[in-house]
Structure formats: C-alpha cells, structure tokens
Amino acid sequence: CFNSGSSWNNCDFETNLCRVLPEFNLQPGWIRRNGRSGMGPPYFDHNGNESAYFLTLSSEMQSSSAALRTSVFLPTDEEHLCQIRFHYWVSQMSRTLMVGLQKLSEDTVTNIWQVSGELRNQWNINTITINSTEKFEVIFLGMVKTQRQGESVAIDDITFSEGC
User: Fold this and answer.
1) Using an 8 Å Cβ cutoff, are 159 and 9 in contact?
2) C-beta separation of 68 from 104 below 8 A
3) Where is each MAM domain found (predicted)?
4) What whole-number distance in Å separates Cα of residue 104 and Cα of residue 41?
5) Are 32 and 14 in contact (CB under 8 A)?
6) What DSSP string runs through 45-88?
C-alpha cells in the first residue's frame, strides 16, 4: 500500500523537494544533513549510507522543541486510512520525538506516538495509522531537555500512504 516511487508520497530528503512537508526549509530547529557533515551522530542514513541525507535537530536550537508540520490532509475513511511510515533515531534520555495530530477545527495537538532516548544508537522504523473525520495536519516534534554534544534526534524516509 506504500507507493515509494512517487515524490508526493515519499520524503527521503535526498532533495529539498518534499511536497508533503512544504515548509521543511523554513522550520527552525530541523536541518537537512548527511553523515559526513561533521555534526555528530547519526553518521549514516537508515540504509547505512554516509552521503545520504536525513533530518536532525540542530545543535543551535533556540528553544527546547522544533516542529515539522505536514501539509493539510483530507479526512480519512474506512477504506483509506492514512498510514505514515518513518525511520527515526533518538539517542540519550534527554531527547524525545513525538508525532502529533492537529485537526483543523482544534487548536490543540493530540499526541499519537512518542519515543524517548534509547541508549542504543541505531535507526528504528515505525508506522502510524491515522483515522480522522476532518481535515488534519501531522506534526513531528523533536524535544530536547538539555543540550549535550553527540546526542541527536533524526528522521529519515517519511512515507505517506494513499489514504493521506
């Protein structure tokens, strides 16, 4: 059900073009980089490629969190649930990655998934299924309690199913 061939449905961050994350270059706090950037871990993307790109939280973050917001998705129905699959890296306990759902009629963001740092430095994969009766946005929120060198939150290969 995942169509990875389409740039509409897949954000691998190899280029800046990622239509589902339209403001991705404007989001303070998230940066697009690869493992050779000299900015600490991860030193490779989820496929083990040092020169492939992914997103990480910037070490120069001004605030304790940085949001990455998708474009607005239409309501889902029983046949077309919205599934979002992504790879993530969260190192150390002072780092958290959260995925939230914001319905357009509400000001609040509902937390639908989150993970805090695991000491194993490795890429993990997760799939979230979203069911919403109204238009919505999805927000990836990286959070930092304390700034320490060599710790990071990273995201790679966000894939959106046809129901999104």
Assistant:
1) yes
2) no
3) 9-164
4) 36
5) no
6) -TTS-TTSEEEEE-TT-SSSEEEEEPPPBPPP-SS--EEEEEEE
Among the listed residues 62, 138, 128, the one whose alpha carbon sits nearest the alpha carbon of residue 100: 138
Q: Please name the residue that has the structure tokens 């990480």.
A: 56
> Which pair of structure tokens corresponds to residue 26?
């404007």
Half-sphere exposure (Cβ direction) of 16: Cα atoms closer than 13 Å: 7
What is the tens place of the pLDDT at every residue in 119-132?
577 899 999 999 99
Burial state string for 19-48 with b = 16 or more CB within 10 A and e = fewer than 16: ebbeebeebebbbbbbbeeebeebebbbee
Q: Retrieve residue 101's tokens.
A: 């759902």
* Pairwise pLDDT comparison (2 vs 77), residue with the higher score: 77
At residue 29, the 3 state secondary structure works out as coil
Contact 61, 146 (CB under 8 A): no
> What is the distance between the alpha carbons of residues 71 and 36, in angstroms, rounded to a whole number?
30
Q: Any residues with CB less than 8 A from the CB of 57 and at least 6 apart, and which?
A: 29, 30, 31, 66, 95, 142, 144, 152, 153, 154
Six-digit token pair at 94? 């002072």
Q: Is the pLDDT of residue 72 over 50?
A: yes
Q: Which of 45-54, 80-89, 111-120, 129-138 has the least mean pLDDT?
A: 111-120
